[in-house]
Amino acid sequence: MLTKYTFGTPFDTQAVTAQVREGENCPFFEISRGEGSLSFRCPLAERDIVYGLGETMGGINKRGGRYVSFNTDNMRHVTGMPSMYGSHNFLVIDGAKPFGAFFDTPARVVFEVDFEGSGQVYVRCESEDVALYTVEGESAYAIVRQFLAAIGRSFIPPLWAFGFGQSRWGYKDERDIRTVADRYAAAGMPLDYICMDIDYMERYKDFTVNKKRFPDLSAFAAEMKGRGIRLVPIVDAGIKAEPGDETYEEGVREDYFCKNLEGKYFRAAVWPGMTHFPDFFRPEVRAWFGAKYKVYTDCGIEGFWNDMNEPSIFFSEYTRGKLRGRNCGDPLYRGNAFLSDYKSFYHTIGGKEVLHYDVHNAFGGNMTRASCEGLEKLLDKRFLLFSRASYIGAHRYGGIWTGDNTSKWEHLRQNVLHMPSLNMCGFLYSGADTGGFSGRATRELLLRWLAFSVYTPLMRNHCMKYMRRQECYRFGKKEEFRSLLALRYRLLPYIYSEFVKAALSSDMYMKPLAFGYPQDERARRIEDQLLVGDSLMVAPVLEKGAKGRTVYLPEAMTQVRWTGETFKTLSVPAGERFVEVPLGEAVFFIRRGRLLPVGGACMHTGEADLSAVTLLGDGEEYAQYIDDGTTRDVRAENIRILKRR
Ligand code: GLC
């Protein structure tokens, strides 16, 4: 049961799509009003678990942490870093009487969850205008499902977006990209898409293509598609402030950009140099920006990633003087935007001027919405779209990736921890930069990371310019990489089916073990094993040098060992066991009474036959969602029941 409590005049973020009954006095929190703020407190019992908060550093259980919803481009993802790229203000307090709470405000929000042993949840919204939604239900899982139903169906990309993608900031022309495709093919490794980072553009300007590097993008996209590989270009939030640039000229003519205190267009430096930010809160601006993707869709392109939409600001005319040394001319320079930047430009929302700072967290999500709505008009089929910045509600328009991580074991672990928390907030289509964005990926780390990414909807190897090249074909003993990529494709009938079913039924695709085994006190505390869909449990190896790992089984299961060639099954009892997992192999578990369909090997999703499956596990039947992989008409009727013979 959901109840809405309204404080002041909340900004309509459109995060919640359901009709929710209004309540008067919220029984869950002690509420205090400050000047320009609202604070909420509730006590926590010793054994309560707190879930949620989407993209935040830390565990699945948020206890002990301080988290700040304030979309931030900061690549130092260290423990305790308060803000990441997205703001997902939903949490569930799983205690004697579990409940969920969504603090719906695009303003900055601080969450302290048993921080420094306070024994309470403390939430401080930097706004007096907040819509608080509370959710009551039998269990944390039931509460999450009600919340997912209330915020609307998650974005569903096409089947090819569940294939493997290769990316690198630094691929600059057709030749680089063709080489990647050739080398993957030569290594016998499947591939579905290659991302095009900012170097494809003319001096980093959105909606332009560098003609020297890509003389005929349509022909090139067609050539690649003929090989089963899609191109996925990046689109950044800022439009270069340069007379003569078509997008800039249109934006100025129509008055579509955000303005500063003096009523002039706000100027902030990002990759292209000085840019203006489209005022994505205005429907007409969204429609204009979304329609600009025609430049690419006309070339046969069906997938995009939106970036720098926190918005990331390297410096502005307000902060330039305050920065020492480097500026945007240096490609490695990443300044943190100063709060004064976010307090120095405005949006026009419903005819009123609104300070960016007050609605900051909803900016990026509105860019995703613009792109999605534009692409829905431009294409008659599903498309891939994922973004960096987000707010709850944006999950209906696109997926997200978790930004600029590092080639570190902790970040592989963080990827595991992020997935269920993101799912609770609607972001089903997500994943991390496999192998790590910055730093130096070792062969072992990349293999272990791939062995986990096999289960994340977005499975993309992405890496930063100047860092070690980390395409899978660059390392020795290629068969180990081949094996893990092959596993992804063999699991596609299951991954795709479970993902779409989860989206259609307001469910999570990746869950904490606790949601499957709420009565099992030990399972409730496990954070490094996840449920993937309804049948599968994964226990990734997360340590350097490990030969395998200890796995806890809350019930007897079917252990499946993927050797690179075959699936070897073994019935294993409940309890703890050490499982050896050599590099390049994978071990996962099928829950009792469940089945898991696996398909045949293929080199890209275009070759995949989702209907030709073998069933593993000891269950009786499996409900498989199946369609052509591109139809917009994603309906529960597309389910067929498979029975074990
Ligand atoms: C940002 C993105 C990263 C991208 C880079 C260059 O740092 O997060 O993925 O490669 O910009 O566009």
Fold and architecture overview:
About 2% of the residues have low confidence. The strands form 10 sheets. The protein has a 9-stranded parallel beta sheet with strand order 27-26-24-20-15-14-13-29-28. The chain has a 6-stranded mixed beta sheet with strand order 2-1-12-9-8-5. Strands 30-31-32-37-34-35 form a 6-stranded antiparallel beta sheet. It starts with a strand and ends with a strand. Helices cover 22% and strands 27% of the residues. The longest helix has 27 residues. A hairpin with a 4-residue loop joins strand 8 and strand 9. It is an alpha+beta fold and 645 residues long. The chain contains 14 helices and 41 strands. The chain binds alpha-D-glucopyranose (GLC). Alpha-D-glucopyranose (GLC) binds next to loops.
Q: What is the element layout, followed by pairings?
A:
Elements: E1 2-7, E2 21-22, E3 30-34, E4 37-43, E5 49-52, E6 65-69, E7 86-87, E8 90-94, E9 99-104, E10 109-113, E11 120-125, E12 130-136, H1 140-151, E13 164-166, H2 174-186, E14 193-196, H3 217-226, E15 230-236, E16 239-240, H4 246-254, E17 259-260, E18 268-270, E19 273-276, H5 283-291, H6 294-297, E20 303-307, E21 315-316, H7 339-342, E22 345-349, E23 352-355, H8 356-359, H9 363-378, E24 384-387, E25 390-391, E26 399-401, H10 409-424, E27 430-431, E28 433-434, H11 443-453, E29 459-461, H12 478-504, E30 510-512, H13 513-516, H14 521-525, E31 530-532, E32 536-538, E33 548-553, E34 557-562, E35 567-572, E36 575-580, E37 586-590, E38 596-598, E39 614-616, E40 621-625, E41 639-643
Bound molecules: alpha-D-glucopyranose (GLC).
